[in-house]
């Protein structure tokens, strides 16, 4: 039995429409949808957001340093006679008394000529960025001369936003003291450049501890 029937124009149009619809479904499920899923897997929205936050953080730290420097240009704290550690500790404890958590890591004091440098690595957590700025400003203007370096500020919450919530801060603070008038020089590491001597026409340097 042979099927020898000519489709009408209407039937031909319907068949063509169904064919295009079928091809459209095939394209969507096997091509378009696959490409979209691949693009979603390479979404850089989170990365862009992180970059923006880091840029804001760097800008805020830079502004903080500038604000503090501008406010303390004329200030010069007291250069106390060695050993002034107990007084410096009292000053530090007063400054950080309002923070959530703080930690001091003391390095051995080092002397160059009559100048003693006491480096302290400090980390602390404050309730807000404004509070952290106030603490750092208090350090710059404290009673005893010091220098702040290696300042780093990070958001303490998962949001990564410095403007709100707690912040974590790490920095190095160097207190300056003098050996002039000192009655005890124990515990000091002497900078080799300040302890040079002549021996047989040659110059030798050495580091020593008092």
Task: Offer a few descriptive terms.
single chain; 210 residues; alpha+beta; 7-stranded mixed β-sheet; two-stranded antiparallel ribbon; 9 strands; rod-shaped; disordered C terminus
Descriptive notes:
By secondary structure, the protein is an alpha+beta fold. The protein is 40% helix and 26% strand. It has helices at residues 9-41, 45-71, 85-96, 129-140; strands spanning 80-81, 101-106, 110-112, 115-126, 146-155, 167-178, 189-190, 196-199, 202-205. Strands 1, 2, 3, 4, 5, 6 and 7 form a seven-stranded mixed sheet that branches. A two-stranded antiparallel sheet has the order 8-9. Strand 8 and strand 9 form a beta hairpin. The longest helix has 33 residues, at 9-41. It is rod-shaped. The termini are far apart. The model is unreliable at 71-75 and 196-210 (pLDDT under 50).
What's this model, at a glance?
The chain is an alpha+beta fold.
Over the alpha carbons, how many angstroms does the gyration radius reach?
34 Å
**How many runs of DSSP E, i.e. beta strands?**
9
Q: Low-confidence segments, ≥5 residues, pLDDT <50?
A: 71-75, 196-210
Shape: rod-shaped
Q: Give the N-to-C terminal Cα separation.
A: 117 Å
Instruction: Describe the main β-sheet briefly.
Output: 7 strands, mixed
Q: Topology of this protein?
A:
Blueprint: H1 9-41, H2 45-71, E1 80-81, H3 85-96, E2 101-106, E3 110-112, E4 115-126, H4 129-140, E5 146-155, E6 167-178, E7 189-190, E8 196-199, E9 202-205
Parallel strand pairs: 1-6, 3-7
Antiparallel strand pairs: 2-4, 3-4, 4-6, 5-6, 8-9
